[in-house]
Write a structure and sequence with these properties.
heterotrimer; A mainly alpha; B mainly alpha; C alpha+beta; A: mainly alpha; Four Helix Bundle (Hemerythrin (Met), subunit A); 7 helices; elongated; C: alpha+beta; Immunoglobulin-like; Cytochrome Bc1 Complex, Chain D, domain 2; five-stranded mixed beta sheet; three-stranded mixed beta sheet
Chain lengths: 188, 651, 486
C-alpha cells in the first residue's frame, strides 16, 4: 500500500505541479479571486479532516474488539466523506453557474481536473469504507484482520492529506489571483 | 489486499490443473506469466520490426513513394510506441517474472493474482493500441505525442485517442507490476539474503520497479490532460486558453527520461549476471555496480529537459540540465569499467549469451559517448531531431537493451524450457544481428550530422543522404534476418530437445539451484542464503576465502569458524528440485505440503472490464456500462476469493 | 560439471568493431553537403561544430581504450580448450573504482567548461558590437515559413534575405503547431512554439544560398517544410530591401500577364497577398494573415481561406513550395495544377474553392494556369515607370466597375444573396444606409472598402483587406455599381 501511495503521490504531484505552473495565467475570467469561496470550503475541509479522526477511532475500536462502535465510526467516515462530496458537487454547480467550466480558461481547466480527480479518490474511498462497514457489521472484519481497515485507513488519510495540499495551493495561495499583467490588452 | 471471507457466487469453477487454455487464463504462476509476457512481447517485437523495415524501405532512396506520408507518420509513431511499451518493457517484465522469485529463493511473487492482472491488462492495452491499424486510425503524432500537434485541432482523427487510451491501460499494468516486484523483492527474499547479497539483476529490477511506480503515473497524468483537451475542450496545452504546449513536453519527459532507464536497467542487470558466469569470476565491484544503478535511477529524474534543449528554456536551464546530464555519465562509466573488470583475467567462454553481453557493453559504450555529445546544448542544437539522435538512442536501446535481452534469452533458455538453444545457430543469430545493427545505425550518425531531420518520410536527391540511407536499410534487413534465425533456433531447440541440466553454465545464483525447468513451486525447500552468489560458493566453498578474504569493505565477512562450517557441509547442491541449501524452512510448510496460491480467473475478467472501459473512450461513453459488470464482477470476486480454497479436512 | 561445447571465436569481433570507427571517421568527409553541420558559413554553426569535434575526439580516445579493453579481454582471457580453470574469485578493487569514477568526472568537467561558456555566449542575447543588428520575425506555419522585417516593413515567405557579416536577431513563433527553425550551415536550431516567443541570432559570413529545414515533426508535410537563406552582400541586401518596396510594372493589357493577373485576383488573392510593397501594406498583411488563420480555426474542415505565403515579388524567388523545387514556368504550372503532387497535404488544395473538384485538380484550363504562372513569374520590382499596380483606367476613360468587381471582389462576394466568404451584396445599397448612425449608404460602402475592419458584420470572418489601392475614382465607380445590385 505504501508503494501504491508513492505512485499516487506522483500522480497528484503532476497535477498540482501543472496547476502551479499555470497559476495566474488565465487570459479571461472568472479569475480565482472572483469565484473561490474560502469560508465554505474551509467547512468542507474541516469535515474531511474530522473523517480522518473517525477513521482512527474506527480502527481503534475494531482492534479493541468493540464491533458496534467500530462499525459506527466507519459509518461516520462514510457519512463525512459523502458530505464532503456534497460540498464539492454544490461548488462545481455554483462555479458552472457563474461561468467557470473546464473550458473557460486555464484556471478552470486545472481546477476542475485536479479537484475532480481528488473527488474520484474520495468516492472510491467512500465505497470502500461502506463495504468495510458492512463487513464489520456482519462480523467478518475483526481484530485479527484489522489490517484490512488499516490499509483502507492509510488510503483515506492519504486522500485527506492531498486535500490539505490542494486546499492550500488552490484556495489559500491563489485566492487573490486575478488576470495576469497584460491580459486586459487582449480583450481591449 | 482484502482477505475478508465474504463469499461471492462463482460462475465458473475455479481452474485447477496444469493443462489446457483455462489453466493459462487462470494461472497465477510467475513462470507461466513470464512466458505469457515473453511470447506476447516477442510477437509485438515482430510487428514493430516490420514497421521499422517498411520505413527503411521507404527511406532507402531519395523521393521514394513506397508508403505515403500519413502511413509513414503512423509507422514511426507505432514503431516507437510498440518497441518501448510493448516490447522492451514487457520482455523485461518476462525476465522479472521468471527470475525474481527464483533468484531470491521464493515460491512466487508477493501478489500472484495482481501479477496475472498486470499481464492481462498489458495484453488488453497492447491490443487496443494495435487495433488502430485495423480500424485505419493508427496514431500519427509520434511516440512523444507533442502538443499541439497531438491535439484535436491539428489531429482530428481517432489515432491519438487510441494512443492515449492504450498507454493509460498499459500504465495500469506497469504500475501493478512495479508494486508487485518492489514488495516481492523487499519482503520475500530467502532467509539470509540481505539486500547486498541479492543478485544484481534483482537489484536492477528493484530500481526499475521503483521507477515504474513513480514514472508511469506521470504519463497517466499527461494522457488524461491531453485527452480532456481533446475531448472536453480543456486548455492544458492550448495556447489560446492560457495553456502552453511546452508544458506537455515537460510532463512527458519527466516521465520519459526515467522511462529510458526503465528500458536499460533490466538489460544492465542481465549483463551483470551473464558476464560473471561466463568469465567464471564474480562480478567485479558488486557494491559499486549496484550503487551506480541506484544513482542512475535517482539522477534519471533530474535530466528530463535535455530532451528539450532547443525548446528555448534559456541559458540557465540549459546549463543546469547539461551538467546533470553529463553527471549521469559517471555512474554509467563505472558500470562499464566494472563489466570489463569482470572479464579481466577471467576464463571467458565465448558462447552466444556471452557474445551478446560483450556486444551490449561495446555498443552501449558507443551510445553513451554519443550521448555526451548531445549533452552539450549548443552542439545538440545541430543534432536535436536529426538522425544523429536516432542513431544514439538505437545504440542504447537496440545495442543496449535488446542485445542484453537476447543475451538473457540465450542464458536462461535452458532454465525456462529445459532444453538448450542451438549454439551454432545462436552464433549466426548474434553475428547477423550485430553486423546488421551496426550497418543500420552507424551510418545514421553520419547522415544526422549531414543535416537529415528525423521523421521525414522522404528527402531530396541533392542532399547527399542516399548512400548512408541505403546502407542503413540493408543493415535493417540483415538485423531482421538475424531475428529470423533466432526463431528458427527456437524451433530447432524444440525439435532437438537437447536436455539441459539444472545448472548448465556453472551458474552463480539461486535460479540454477532448482531443476530446469523449475517445478511449479520453484524450490522443494526454501534455500538458506549466506553469501552473494550463494549457489557458487556452496558449490566451491574453497573459493569463499578468495572472495571474502580480503573483503575490507564487506561487513559480511564470515569468520573462520563459519567458513569451516560451510566447508564441512560440503553442500554441493543436489540438483533437480532437490534439497538445496541448509536445514531451514520447516516452519511454514511443516506438513510437507507446499501451498501455492490457487488459480483464479478474476484477474482476467477484471482486465476485460478495463479493456471495455478503454474501448468506451474510443467509441461511445455508453460502452462504459458494458464494461462495468466485468469490472465489478472481477473486483468483487477477486476481493472475496480466498487465496486457497479450503483444503478438505484431513484427519 | 555439465558443459556445452562452444565454438571458439577468433578475431572476428575485432574486425567488426572497426566498422563503426571507420564509418565515424568517414563522417568528417562530407562538409559540402547542403545541410551538413560541417563546412559552416557562420560563427554560431562553426563554434557548434568545433565543440562537437572537441567532444568527438575525446570520445574517440575513450572509445578506443574501452573497446580495446573489451576486445583484448575477450581474446586474451578466452577459454582455451575445455579447461575448467577457475580464475581468482576477486571481489573488486576499491582503488580502481575510485580511479574510474574520478577520470570520467574529470573528462566530463573538461567537456562541461567549454559547453557552458558556449551556452552563455550563444543563447544570452544578440551581440551589439558586431555590426548593426537586423531584426526578423520568423513564423512557422503548416508547412511553410513566414519572414517579417518589422524595421523595414517587409513581409515575405520561404526565402530569407540577410546581409553578410551582420548579426540577425530572430524572434521565432508559430501560428499552429511546434516547428523548428534550422539553417545547419549557419546556426543550430531553435523551436518555434505557438504563442511562446523564442529567440535565436546568427551571422552569415559567406554570401550564398543556404538550406534550411523544419526539424520538429509538424504533420503530414513535415518532410516538405524547407526554406532557403540567401546571404547577400550589403549592397545586394540594400537593393533587395528597396526592391521590396517597389511595385511591379503593370502588365500590358491583353498580355498573358494581364490575364494571369485577373485570374489570380479571382482565384488566389483571398489567401495570397502579392502586392505588399506600398507603405502600410505590412501592417495590413499581418492583420489579414491573422484573420485568415482565425477563419480556418473556426471551421478547420470547410474553411475556404487559410493563411498563406505572401507572394510579393514572387518572380524573384529561387524556389517553389517552401524550398521544394526550382522555380520556373513548368514547375509553377505543375504546382498550380495539382499542389499536392509537389507538397502533399498542402492546405491550398484542401481549402481553396478553385480546387473544389472531384479529382482535386484546379478548375482552370491549361492556358489559364499558364497565364497565372507567367503573371507570378513577372512579379519583380518594377522599373519605376508605372507605380500603380492596378489600372487607373486612364484619364477620361470610363471605369468598368463591373470588371473591377469581378477582378477584385468576386472571390469573396457574390452579386446575389449567397454567402461566399463575405456576404452576398444584392441590395447592399438599401441595407447600407441604416447600418451605422450618421453614415450614408455611400459613406458606409466606401468605408467598408477602405477600412473593412471597422464594421465587420459579426457572423463573418474579419479577413477582408483594405482596397484603398484601387484609387479614389475606381472606388467611387465601384460604390455606384454596388448600389445598383438588387
Amino acid at each position: 500500500m505504501w508503494t501504491f501511495l508513492g505512485s499516487d503521490v506522483m500522480f497528484f504531484g503532476a497535477f498540482i505541479a501543472t496547476y502551479l505552473v499555470y497559476r495566474g495565467r488565465s487570459l479571461n475570467g472568472p479569475y480565482p479571486s472572483e469565484i473561490l469561496n474560502i469560508p465554505v470550503t474551509s467547512v468542507s475541509t474541516f469535515v474531511l479532516l474530522m473523517s480522518s479522526l473517525a477513521m482512527v477511532l474506527g480502527l481503534y475500536y475494531l482492534r479493541e474488539g468493540q464491533k458496534n462502535k467500530a462499525t459506527l465510526w466507519i459509518l461516520v467516515v462514510v457519512l463525512l466523506g459523502s458530505v464532503f462530496m456534497g460540498f464539492q458537487f454544490v461548488e462545481f454547480r455554483e462555479f458552472a453557474h457563474e461561468g467557470l467550466t473546464p473550458r473557460t480558461n486555464i484556471f478552470g481547466t486545472t481546477f476542475f481536473i485536479l479537484t475532480g480527480i481528488h473527488g474520484a479518490h474520495v468516492t472510491i474511498g467512500v465505497i470502500w469504507m461502506a463495504f468495510l462497514a458492512y463487513s464489520s457489521h456482519r462480523g467478518k472484519l475483526r481484530a485479527d484482520n484489522s489490517l484490512d481497515l488499516e490499509i483502507a485507513g492509510l488510503y483515506w488519510h492519504f486522500v485527506d492529506i492531498v486535500w490539505i495540499v490542494i486546499f492550500t495551493v488552490i484556495y489559500l495561495i491563489s485566492a487573490n489571483d486575478g488576470p495576469p499583467p497584460g491580459a486586459e490588452l487582449l480583450h481591449g | 489486499m482484502t482477505t475478508t471471507s465474504l463469499t461471492f457466487p462463482r460462475l465458473f469453477p475455479r481452474p485447477k490443473g496444469y493443462a489446457g487454455i483455462w489453466s493459462w487464463i487462470g494461472t497465477v504462476d510467475h513462470k507461466r506469466i513470464g512466458t505469457l509476457y515473453g511470447v506476447t512481447a516477442f510477437i509485438w517485437f515482430l510487428v514493430g520490426g516490420i514497421e521499422a523495415l517498411l520505413m527503411r524501405i521507404q527511406l532507402a532512396k531519395a523521393e521514394n513513394t513506397f508508403v505515403d506520408p500519413e502511413t509513414f507518420n503512423q509507422l514511426f509513431t507505432m514503431h516507437g510506441t510498440t518497441m518501448v511499451f510493448l516490447v522492451i518493457m514487457p520482455l523485461s517484465a518476462a525476465f522479472f517474472n521468471w527470475l525474481i522469485p527464483l533468484q531470491i529463493g521464493a515460491r512466487d511473487v508477493a501478489f500472484p493474482r495482481l501479477n496475472a492482472m498486470s499481464f492481462w491488462v498489458f495484453l488488453a492495452g497492447s491490443l487496443i493500441i494495435n487495433a488502430s491499424w485495423i480500424t485505419g486510425n493508427a496514431p500519427n503524432g509520434g511516440w512523444f505525442g507533442y502538443a499541439p500537434y497531438s491535439g484535436v485541432t491539428f489531429n482530428p482523427g481517432m489515432g491519438m485517442t487510441y494512443w492515449i487510451v492504450g498507454l493509460n491501460i498499459l500504465g495500469v499494468a506497469s504500475i501493478a507490476a512495479g508494486l508487485n516486484f518492489i514488495v516481492t523483492i523487499l519482503n520475500m527474499r530467502a532467509p539470509g539474503m540481505s539486500m547486498f547479497k541479492m543478485p544484481v539483476f534483482t537489484w536492477m529490477t528493484l530500481v526499475t520497479s521503483i521507477l515504474l511506480v513513480l514514472a508511469m503515473p506521470i504519463l497517466a497524468v499527461a494522457g488524461i490532460q491531453l485527452q480532456t483537451d481533446r475531448v472536453y475542450g480543456t486548455n492544458f496545452f492550448n495556447s489560446l486558453g492560457g495553456g502552453d504546449p511546452v508544458m506537455w513536453q515537460h510532463i512527458f519527459w519527466l516521465f520519459g527520461h526515467p522511462e529510458v532507464y526503465i528500458l536499460i536497467l533490466p538489460a544492465m542487470g542481465i549483463v551483470s549476471e551473464v558476464l560473471p558466469t561466463f568469465s567464471r569470476k564474480p562480478l567485479f565491484g558488486y557494491p559499486f555496480v549496484v550503487f551506480a544503478g541506484v544513482v542512475i535511477g535517482f539522477m534519471g529524474w533530474f535530466v528530463w529537459s535535455h530532451h528539450m534543449f532547443t525548446v528555448g528554456l534559456g541559458p540557465a536551464a540549459n546549463s543546469a540540465f547539461a551538467i546533470s546530464t553529463m553527471l549521469i555519465g559517471v555512474p554509467t562509466g563505472i558500470k562499464i569499467f566494472n563489466w570489463i573488470g569482470t572479464m579481466w583475467r577471467g576464463n571467458i567462454r565465448l558462447n552466444t549469451a556471452m557474445l551478446f553481453s560483450i556486444s551490449f557493453v561495446a555498443m552501449f559504450t558507443i551510445g553513451g559517448l554519443s550521448g555526451v555529445m548531445h549533452a552539450a546544448p549548443t552542439a545538440d542544437a545541430q543534432q536535436q531531431d536529426t538522425y544523429f539522435v536516432v542513431a544514439h538512442f538505437h545504440y542504447v536501446l537496440v545495442g543496449g537493451s535488446l542485445l542484453g535481452i537476447f543475451s538473457g534469452i540465450y542464458y536462461w533458455w535452458p532454465k525456462f524450457t529445459g532444453w538448450y538453444l542451438n549454439e551454432k545457430l545462436g552464433i549466426a543469430n548474434w553475428a547477423l544481428m550485430f553486423i546488421g545493427f551496426n550497418l543500420q545505425f552507424a551510418p545514421l550518425h553520419w547522415v544526422g550530422l549531414d543535416g537529415m531531420p528525423r521523421r521525414i518520410y522522404t528527402y531530396a536527391e541533392n542532399m547527399g543522404w542516399e548512400g548512408t540511407n541505403l546502407a542503413a536499410s540493408i543493415g535493417g534487413f540483415i538485423l531482421g534476418f538475424g531475428v529470423l534465425v533466432f526463431m528458427v533456433n527456437v524451433l530447432v531447440s524444440r525439435m532437438q530437445r537437447k536436455v539441459a541440466p539444472a545448472d548448465p553454465w556453472d551458474g552463480r545464483t539461486l535460479e540454477w539451484a532448482t531443476s530446469s525447468p523449475p517445478p511449479p513451486h520453484d524450490f522443494d525447500e526454501i534455500p538458506q542464503v549466506e553469501y552473494r552468489d550463494d549457489f557458487w560458493f556452496k558449490k566451491y566453498p574453497e573459493t569463499i576465502a578468495e572472495y571474502y578474504g580480503h573483503g575490507d569493505d564487506d561487513p559480511a565477512v564470515p569468520s573462520g569458524a563459519q567458513l569451516d562450517e560451510a566447508v564441512d557441509e560440503e553442500s554441493v547442491p543436489v540438483i533437480s528440485g532437490g534439497a538445496y541449501g541448509a536445514e531451514a524452512t520447516e516452519s511454514e510448510h511443516g506438513h510437507g505440503k507446499i501451498h501455492l496460491p490457487d488459480q483464479s480467473y478474476y484477474p482476467f475478467i477484471l482486465s476485460i472490464g478495463l479493456a471495455i472501459f478503454g474501448i468506451a473512450f474510443l467509441t461511445d461513453g455508453l460502452v462504459l456500462f458494458a464494461g462495468a459488470p466485468f469490472f465489478i464482477w472481477g473486483l468483487l470476486g477477486w476481493s472475496m476469493e480466498p487465496v486457497n480454497d479450503p483444503e478438505p479436512e484431513t484427519p | 560439471m555439465h558443459r556445452v561445447s562452444k565454438p571458439s571465436i577468433s578475431l572476428r569481433p575485432t574486425l567488426l568493431l572497426l566498422a563503426p570507427i571507420a564509418l565515424a571517421l568517414l563522417a568528417a568527409c562530407t562538409p559540402d553537403n547542403a545541410q551538413s553541420t560541417f563546412g559552416t558559413a557562420g560563427p554560431i554553426a562553426e563554434d557548434q561544430a568545433n565543440l562537437f569535434k572537441f567532444i568527438f575526439w575525446i570520445a574517440v580516445v575513450v572509445f578506443v581504450l574501452v573497446e580495446g579493453a573489451i576486445i583484448y579481454a575477450s581474446i586474451r582471457y578466452r577459454q582455451r580448450s575445455d579447461s575448467d580453470k577457475r580464475p581468482h574469485q576477486t571481489h573488486g578493487n576499491t582503488r580502481l573504482e575510485i580511479t574510474w569514477t574520478i577520470i570520467p568526472a574529470i573528462i566530463l568537467i573538461a567537456v562541461a567548461v567549454p559547453t557552458l561558456s558556449q551556452i552563455w555566449g550563444q543563447q544570452n542575447g544578440v551581440p551589439t558590437d558586431q555590426g548593426e543588428v537586423v531584426g526578423v520575425e520568423a513564423i512557422g506555419h503548416q508547412w511553410w515559413f513566414e519572414f517579417r522585417y518589422p524595421d523595414n516593413e517587409i513581409i515575405t515567405a520561404n526565402e530569407l534575405h540577410i546581409p553578410v557579416n551582420r548579426p540577425v536577431a530572430f524572434k521565432l513563433n508559430s501560428q499552429d503547431v511546434i516547428h523548428s527553425f534550422w539553417v545547419p550551415k549557419i546556426a543550430g536550431k531553435v523551436d518555434m512554439v505557438p504563442l511562446n516567443d523564442n529567440f535565436i541570432w546568427m551571422i552569415g559570413t559567406e554570401p550564398g544560398v543556404f538550406y534550411g529545414q523544419c526539424a520538429e515533426f509538424c504533420g503530414i508535410a513535415h518532410a516538405h517544410m524547407r526554406f532557403r537563406v540567401i546571404v547577400d552582400t550589403e549592397e545586394d541586401y540594400q537593393a533587395w530591401l528597396k526592391g521590396m518596396h517597389t511595385a511591379p510594372d503593370a502588365p500590358t493589357p491583353g498580355s498573358p500577364e494581364a490575364s494571369g493577373q485577373q485570374l489570380f485576383a479571382v482565384n488566389c488573392s483571398s489567401c495570397h497577398t502579392n502586392n505588399s510593397t506600398a507603405p502600410g501594406s505590412y501592417a495590413q498583411e499581418i492583420s489579414t494573415q491573422q484573420a485568415r488563420w482565425n477563419g480556418w480555426l473556426e471551421d478547420t474542415e470547410n474553411a475556404s481561406i487559410v493563411s498563406a505565403p505572401n507572394l510579393t515579388h514572387f518572380g524573384d524567388r529561387l524556389t517553389l513550395g517552401a524550398g521544394l523545387k526550382d522555380l520556373n514556368h513548368d514547375s509553377l504550372v505543375g504546382w498550380i495544377t495539382e499542389p499536392s503532387s509537389v507538397k502533399i497535404g498542402t492546405r491550398m488544395q484542401q481549402h481553396a474553392a478553385v480546387y473544389d473538384t472531384p479529382d482535386g485538380r484546379a478548375k482552370l484550363s491549361a492556358s489559364e494556369i499558364s497565364d497565372i504562372a507567367t503573371y507570378l513569374l513577372s512579379l519583380k520590382p518594377g522599373t519605376g515607370a508605372a507605380a500603380e499596380p492596378v489600372d487607373d483606367g486612364g484619364a477620361g476613360t470610363a471605369i468598368d466597375a463591373e470588371a473591377v468587381f469581378i477582378t477584385n471582389c468576386a472571390t469573396c462576394h457574390s452579386t446575389g444573396a449567397d454567402k461566399v466568404v463575405g456576404p452576398g451584396l444584392a441590395g447592399i445599397g438599401e441595407r447600407a444606409s441604416g447600418r451605422v448612425d450618421g453614415m450614408s449608404a455611400d459613406e458606409y460602402i466606401e468605408q467598408s472598402i477602405r477600412e473593412p475592419g471597422e464594421f465587420i458584420v459579426p457572423t463573418y470572418p474579419a479577413v477582408m483587406v483594405s482596397w484603398s489601392k484601387l484609387g479614389d475614382d475606381t472606388i467611387d465607380a465601384l460604390v455606384t455599381y454596388l448600389k445598383t445590385l438588387k
